Amino acid sequence: MEYPISITPQTVRTVTDTKSIPFGKVPTEHMFIAEYRDGQWQNARITPFHDLTLSPMALCLHYGQTVFEGMKAFVMEDSRINIFRIDKHYDRFCKSLDRMCMPRVPKELFTEAMHQLVQLDSKWVPDEADGSLYLRPFMIATEDRIGVKIGEEYLFMIVASPAYQYYANPLKIKVETEFSRAADGGTGTAKCGGNYGGAFYPTQLAKEQGFDQVLWTDSRTHTLIEESGTMNAMFYIDNTLLTPALSGSILDGVTRDSLLAIAREKGMKVEERPISIAELKAAFEAGKRVEAFGAGTAAVIAPIASITIGDKAYDCYVGEDATMFTLKKALYDIRTGVAPDTHKWNYIL
Ligand code: COI
């Protein structure tokens, strides 16, 4: 192997009741870390989870050169462990890194690091329905320079934390027409830290008004739907699965992509195209059954209970027989090996 990974396990292993852990709160016992210096990845290692020492002048702290991924590992029906869609996550990680002028991690190193870490912390992968081990590969620029420049030194790390249902209840959301998540030509398609930090303020305002999340619209006209919170926005209306087409400001979600593929395979009508708020409003006002949901790795499918457009709240359908739940189950069945993995999405340890 071109990038050998040294492994130093914890001497005393902990057994944890993962079920009570809030999302992202408790790390597993180990982490992966590698350094980029002199144009090369080096010193790749899995160690007990530990804090970092960084110069206060580290570039990531000032100019936001940070990129991350969110992935999941599942326990399959036959007890083997599956890391879902590692290839697609790796490809998106590379695209985000390119956009942020950060060095790519070789695929072999990314895959092997993930494999070894999940293997070592395999007891932390919940085997209950809705449970998974959330994997967070990420990179930060560590060079100590206050001058505005592209970093020459980086850390690539992977941490993991048990995850269950992300949202306890169907969401109440409002259409956001003042603030934007991303603009044409911006970093909306990259999974970089700044996209999330920039969303906090409008989301906080929405929460103060009693909403759980916002439905982002395009920055130019605020008439077209983009994403919902930190998820892709999807709808099921008139027997059609609908989602905004990928544009320069929408993240190429892995769950979005998986659900579209599953729906097509099931013979459902699927449309990826611009969707206007006016079209959504017309569907509500015509009394149509509207299913709306967010799709993302952390949340999987987050049902939306109501969408407020202007000052009017419209109810969405969240009944047990909703199509979104059929899609969710189909995805779950592939991940756990109950249904065949026809797309080769599963990376089984
Ligand atoms: C994910 O769904 O993995 C995300 O990145 C959303 C959030 C946890 C940041």
List the helices and strands and how they pair.
Blueprint: E1 6-7, E2 30-37, E3 40-48, H1 59-63, E4 66-68, E5 71-75, E6 81-84, H2 86-99, H3 107-120, E7 132-141, E8 154-163, E9 171-175, H4 193-208, E10 213-217, E11 225-228, E12 231-237, E13 240-243, H5 254-265, E14 269-272, H6 277-285, E15 291-296, E16 300-309, E17 312-315, H7 323-335, E18 346-348
Parallel strand pairs: 1-3, 9-10, 9-16, 13-14
Antiparallel strand pairs: 2-3, 2-8, 4-7, 5-6, 5-7, 6-18, 7-8, 10-11, 11-12, 12-13, 12-15, 15-16, 16-17
The structure holds 2-OXO-4-methylpentanoic acid.
Overview of the molecule:
With 349 residues, this protein is of the alpha+beta class. The chain has seven helices and 18 strands. The chain folds into two domains: 6-164, Aminotransferase class 4, branched-chain amino acid transferase, N-terminal domain (D-amino Acid Aminotransferase, Chain A, domain 1, 2-Layer Sandwich), CATH 3.30.470; 171-335, D-amino Acid Aminotransferase, Chain A, domain 2 (Alpha-Beta Barrel). It has helices spanning 59-63, 86-99, 107-120, 193-208, 254-265, 277-285, 323-335, and strands spanning 6-7, 30-37, 40-48, 66-68, 71-75, 81-84, 132-141, 154-163, 171-175, 213-217, 225-228, 231-237, 240-243, 269-272, 291-296, 300-309, 312-315, 346-348. Strands 1, 2, 3, 4, 5, 6, 7, 8 and 18 form a nine-stranded mixed beta sheet that branches. Strand 16 (300-309) and strand 17 (312-315) form a beta hairpin. Helix 5 crosses helix 7 (323-335). The longest helix has 16 residues, at 193-208. The protein is globular and about 60 Å long. The chain starts with 5 loop residues before the first strand and ends with a strand. The chain binds 2-OXO-4-methylpentanoic acid. The site of 2-OXO-4-methylpentanoic acid has 6 residues, from loops.
